[in-house]
Amino acid sequence: MTRFINAFQALTLVSANMAHPQRLTTEGKVAPTVVFARNRVCVQARPDVGLTTDNLLDKLLDPNIKIGTSTPKADPGGDYAWELFAKADSVRPGAKQILEAKAQQLVGGAAAPQVPVGQSPVKYFMSTRRVDVFIGYCSSHETTPDSTLVQVELPANLSISADYGMTVLELPQTAATRNAAYRLALYLMSPEAQDVLTRYGFTPVARQ
Fold first, then answer.
1. Rounded Cα distance, 87 and 56, in Å
2. What is the reported pTM?
3. Which end of the chain is flanked by fewer CB atoms within 10 Å, N or C?
4. In sequence order, which ranges of the chain are alpha helices (DSSP H)?
């Protein structure tokens, strides 16, 4: 997730991958990049899959289990899924090739399949049996757990954390719009905003 937030016509950039805003900072195009939240990678599954943290790698490698991911290079969620596959290879040699071949890139890419309006892609692809599990973030668009799916944490030897970066674009702008952009950036680091992020499954970095 990389987004430009319009704050009274000033631009604040937030990204699920620190590398994107940090690269712009290195190029001198934006202000310094800071971490404003952290996330983790989890795997969601239908209850009938029987997925647990202990059997997670066995289930992912099972030829009968269909895996869904976001699209790497187009969506940071996909990049983290491929990072998971690389980690799995160090635990079980050959896993990376198997998992990359199995993974269906269903979200974020130019060729991603259409999802009915108003429906969650993960829920839709699970309910239609297109996939059995989906690798993504532990955070959610909702503050209450989804009873139709099981969300499982990765085992310690496969765990992946995601730092969310934020910066302000150094574009020609008035003092008012520049101040607005920095006010938004400061708000995202405030206890109030950090509490909101926590309710949606993020790990806060600046909460009192």
1. 13
2. 0.82
3. C
4. 19-26, 56-61, 76-91, 95-102, 121-127, 175-188, 191-199
CA–CA separation, 99 and 89 (whole Å):
9
Helix-helix angle 76-91:95-102, to 10 degrees:
150
Give the Cα separation of 119 and 97 in Å (integer): 31
How far, in whole angstroms, is CA 85 from its chain's centroid? 16
Q: How far apart are the first and last CA of the chain?
A: 26
| Residues comprising the chain, all counted | 208
2-25 confidence digits (pLDDT tens) = 444 444 334 788 888 888 889 989
- Measuring CA to CA, how many Å separate 83 from each of 2, 76, 159? 18, 10, 10
* CA–CA distance, 205 with 190 (Å, rounded to integer): 10
Q: Which residues lie closer than 8 Å to 177 by C-beta, 6 or more apart?
A: 7, 8, 9, 10
CA distance linking residue 38 with residue 33, whole number of Å: 14
Rg (CA), the chain: 18
pLDDT tens-place string over residues 85-95: 999 999 999 99
Residue 190 to residue 182: CA distance in whole angstroms? 12
Whether CATH 3.40.190.10 fits 39-161? yes
Question: What is the residue extent of each domain of the chain?
Answer: 2-37+164-199, 39-161
Residue 45 has pLDDT above 50, yes or no: yes
Report the mean per-residue pLDDT for the chain: 89
